[in-house]
Amino acid sequence: MSQPGPPAEAPERLRQPPPPPQTPPLHGSRTICDRETTLPIKPFENSEPPPEVRKAESGAGKSESGVFPVLRLYPAFLYSGHLWEEMSSIKRSLNQEIISQFHYSAAEGDIARLTVILSHSPSLLNETSENGWTALMYAARNGHPDVVQFLLEKGCDRSIVNKSRQTALDIAKFWGYKHIANLLANAKGGMKPWFLTNEVEDCENYFSRTLLDRKSEKRNNSDWLLAKESHPATVYILFSDLNPLVTLGGNKESFQQPEVRLCQLNYTDIKNYLGQREKITLIFLGVELEMKKESFNYAGEVPREEEDGLVAWFALGIDPAAAEEFKQRHENCYFLHPPMPALLQLKEKEAGVVAQARSVLAWHSRYKFCPTCGSATKIEEGGYKRVCLKEDCPSLHGVHNTSYPRVDPVVIMQVIHPDGTKCLLGRQKRFPPGMFTCLAGFIEPGETIEDAVRREVEEESGVKVGHVQYVSCQPWPMPSSLMIGCLAVAVSTEIKVDKNEIEDARWFTREQVVDVLTKGKQQAFFVPPSRAIAHQLIKHWIGMNPNL
């Protein structure tokens, strides 16, 4: 990518104060930013002025601020029908004069004058000149870090691009002002970019929906759990090497993959495994959201006092040998493998159950020994806790996160170009050829979501990010992550890919992305399927344009 630079005429213009406006002699006058400017007024020949003029009082005055004056209104008989065009033109000229004074003060490094102007007219903060430059850009171009810091503290927008497609950060980098570039790159807060909406619709991503109430209060009730294990209505889902047992369904999804369904087993199907506790992992997942009246009557199989109408679900992990033996007895079932993209073929609500079960089972497979002392552990609380068997282990005193299933938070972000017209997508070497997706990375200890987004984007692509906005999240059971989806607005545009992180990163236009979403793999690249949060973040960005 070619190195950006400011417009050729900008440096020379910035070194000189703006020239005074060329206006003819006037009948009225007013003061703007301590400079005298006169207003041309033409006499009127007719006798009937507009009603607004008739109502206005004669005389001159100033606004309450004392800086921006009020136009002196003369008796109505002095005005012609062209006066209002004349006045509008004068007003526009005066606005440009004020903006020029503001930009000139930034270019000269005059914080005192900037403070006075902004105190009377804070809306000038992000006003642009004819070439699209802001006060922040002028301060960055002329090497005034104190002015840059002042404007950033006032909340100016770092993401604005001028007509040469540059941000203030691009300009500071081009002219070699490293300190200013660091200020612009690392500043937090500021105004939200104009193309971001405040409205974020509630979104339930794939793996987020479920048909169960987890009933966490039942996990310590060993008698209730034991009774539910043998209840005729209880549902078991079987796993081997974290792969769920499924069967083919009758429908097909829009992405042309066959829909698969969980094999819902009952107690008689798996009771032999329950007698071998040392070889299995049993997890209580919860109860169905809707109570089933038919579960109250099982012809005496369940004592009436034990019947509560709740249909419990358990996940059962077995070893590969037992799994192979089970498949031979159930030829219409198979273990779903590999997990990606196979797990994306499940029904939405069943996918949520699998995400829960797979993540907890993965934790058990990795933490069979105590992380504190290295001793063996046992499963308690319905599969949601591992307890150390060593009597004097510190983990037995108090609450320790090592005793419970872990979740790894991951930020995944749709990075938007400063002008809002492009997005940044990347790819790893292991991706299918042509696939690009949102950048992502793990949150580090002591790090906020926003800081993690900024760090990961810069590490992988070299692009600096300013504003970050949360959109939605998605459980990702590979093995147990929570994908935190965000929109991130870049404040620089140059891409420098870290090949140790990703293989490639590019800016894609809105039109390119729309074509990919509507025409799929007919295009030069493609994005993840709709059940991945990356796809939903991309669609969310596209949806911000009301014309689409």
Automatic annotation (TrEMBL):
One of its GO terms (molecular function) is NADH pyrophosphatase activity. ANK repeats lie at residues 131-163. GO terms for cellular component: cytosol; nucleus; peroxisome. It catalyses: NADH + H2O = reduced beta-nicotinamide D-ribonucleotide + AMP + 2 H(+); NADPH + H2O = reduced beta-nicotinamide D-ribonucleotide + adenosine 2',5'-bisphosphate + 2 H(+); NAD(+) + H2O = beta-nicotinamide D-ribonucleotide + AMP + 2 H(+); a 5'-end NAD(+)-phospho-ribonucleoside in mRNA + H2O = a 5'-end phospho-adenosine-phospho-ribonucleoside in mRNA + beta-nicotinamide D-ribonucleotide + 2 H(+). GO terms for biological process: mRNA methylguanosine-cap decapping; NAD+ catabolic process; NAD-cap decapping; NADP+ catabolic process. Its cofactor is Zn(2+); Mg(2+). Its EC number is 3.6.1.22. Residues 1-63 are annotated as: Disordered. It holds the Pfam family Zn_ribbon_NUD. Keywords: ANK repeat, Cytoplasm, Hydrolase, Magnesium, Metal-binding, NAD, NADP, Peroxisome, Repeat, Zinc. The keyword Metal-binding applies. CDD domains: NUDIX_NADH_pyrophosphatase_Nudt13 (cd03429). InterPro entries: Ankyrin_rpt, Ankyrin_rpt-contain_sf, NAD-cap_RNA_hydrolase_NudC, NADH_PPase-like_N, NudC-like_C, NUDIX_hydrolase-like_dom_sf, NUDIX_hydrolase_CS, NUDIX_hydrolase_dom. It is found in: Cytoplasmic granule; Peroxisome. It comes from the Eukaryota. mRNA decapping enzyme that specifically removes the nicotinamide adenine dinucleotide (NAD) cap from a subset of mRNAs by hydrolyzing the diphosphate linkage to produce nicotinamide mononucleotide (NMN) and 5' monophosphate mRNA. The NAD-cap is present at the 5'-end of some RNAs; in contrast to the canonical N7 methylguanosine (m7G) cap, the NAD cap promotes mRNA decay. Preferentially acts on NAD-capped transcripts in response to nutrient stress. Also acts on free nicotinamide adenine dinucleotide molecules: hydrolyzes NAD(H) into NMN(H) and AMP, and NADPH into NMNH and 2',5'-ADP. This is NAD-capped RNA hydrolase NUDT12. It comes from Mustela putorius furo (European domestic ferret). The lineage of its organism: Eukaryota, Metazoa, Chordata, Craniata, Vertebrata.
